[in-house]
């Protein structure tokens, strides 16, 4: 069952006795768990009927005993186990999961890890409750995720703005969602969000960001690339070199892969490289400006400066100086 169906059922007061929420992406786990914590019981009912435990501070037997109690002056009680990945012998919960109390809603937040779905414990959860797996979303999928998130609130966004946000915020969905909420609060419904909106409401420069740096390097625009990297050097806390190297590594790796594609049409390139179709043409043009040999060297340069930023082979250069050297080597 996906998270939208789980939330839809919760909104319709269709409850299950067990919600085992697991996976590498915590955003959806928190979304479901927080909804249950905030909405299933009234404020008056929560005092006697809602308990929150933390995996590292509790034991399986304590959770089982609490789950077997009946609610007081309410139809349900809610038991929430946070940080359940730290709970010792979690599979010992199977004795309760086999015969859960229908008046208890047991929510287990098992973050950053996966349980083998083939084991009996998981199969028992699936039989008597909800087992939800929240897989990690990779960075190249974040722009699409941003578009869908905003569409749910009746907003649209330009491809440039979606890329700009994803490059700046990375793959932390909670962080991305928080920034998108700022835009939703600030802008009227049905607004098409642009880089200007992002600069004005979130504070990411529409001219001096990693996305624009990629474009400058793809165009071999030395002046623009140096202007952006100088800005990064003057604002290192907002533009850390590790984020720059990671983004450029992904960018140049895709340009390298392009050279070995059999079908170099725009649609095929977009599909093969995981790009928004809007950007396929610019990637094709950029790839033609760099030979495979040069792109191989650039990937090595990025790795070298990533290591230097972490102290390996670098005794005194600042982040700003390292970024300037790195960009110079890429362009020459």
Low-confidence stretches: none
Helix % is 40-55%
Shape call? elongated
Task: Determine the CATH superfamily of the largest domain.
Answer: P-loop containing nucleotide triphosphate hydrolases
**Beta fraction:** 5-15%
Strand order in the largest sheet? 2-3-4-1-5
What's the overall average pLDDT, rounded? 92
**SSE string, helices as H and strands as E:** HEHHEHEHEHEHEHHEHHHHHHHH
Query: Could you please say which CATH topology of the largest domain applies here?
Result: Rossmann fold
Overall CATH architecture of the largest domain: 3-Layer(aba) Sandwich
Q: What's the number of structural domains?
A: 3
Main structural class = alpha/beta
Please tally the helical runs, counting DSSP H or I stretches of 4 or more residues: 17
The profile of the biggest β sheet is: 5 strands, parallel
**Rg computed from alpha carbons, rounded to a whole number of angstroms:** 25 Å
Oligomer: single chain
CATH class of the largest domain: Alpha Beta
Give the termini distance in whole angstroms. Answer: 52 Å
């Amino acid at each position: 069952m996906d998270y939208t169906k789980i939330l839809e059922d919760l909104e319709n007061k269709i409850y299950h006795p067990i919600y085992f929420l697991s996976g590498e992406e915590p955003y959806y786990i928190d979304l479901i768990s927080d909804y249950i914590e905030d909405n299933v019981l009234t404020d008056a009912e929560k005092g006697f009927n809602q308990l929150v435990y933390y995996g590292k501070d509790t034991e399986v037997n304590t959770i089982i005993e609490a789950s077997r109690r009946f609610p007081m002056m309410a139809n349900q009680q809610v038991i929430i186990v946070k940080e359940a990945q730290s709970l010792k012998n979690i599979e010992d919960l199977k004795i309760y999961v086999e015969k859960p109390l229908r008046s208890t809603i047991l929510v287990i937040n098992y973050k950053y890890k996966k349980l083998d779905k083939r084991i009996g414990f998981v199969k028992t959860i699936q039989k008597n409750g909800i087992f939800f797996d929240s897989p990690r979303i990779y960075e190249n999928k974040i722009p699409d995720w941003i578009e869908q998130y905003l569409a749910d609130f009746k907003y649209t966004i330009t491809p440039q703005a979606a890329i700009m946000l994803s490059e700046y915020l990375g793959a932390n969905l909670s962080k991305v969602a928080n920034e998108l909420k700022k835009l939703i609060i600030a802008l009227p419904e049905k607004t098409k969000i642009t880089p200007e909106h992002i600069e004005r409401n979130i504070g990411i420069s529409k001219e001096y960001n990693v996305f624009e740096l990629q474009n400058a390097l793809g165009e071999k625009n030395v002046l623009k690339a140096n202007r952006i990297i100088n800005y990064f050097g003057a604002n290192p806390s907002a533009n850390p070199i590790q984020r720059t190297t990671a983004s450029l590594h992904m960018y140049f790796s895709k340009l390298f892969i392009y050279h070995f594609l059999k079908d170099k049409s725009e649609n095929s390139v977009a599909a093969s490289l995981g790009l928004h179709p809007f950007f396929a043409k610019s990637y094709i043009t950029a790839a033609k400006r760099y030979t495979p040999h040069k792109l191989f060297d650039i990937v090595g340069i990025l790795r070298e400066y990533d290591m230097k930023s972490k102290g390996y082979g670098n005794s005194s250069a600042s982040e700003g100086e390292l970024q300037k050297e790195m960009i110079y080597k890429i362009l020459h």
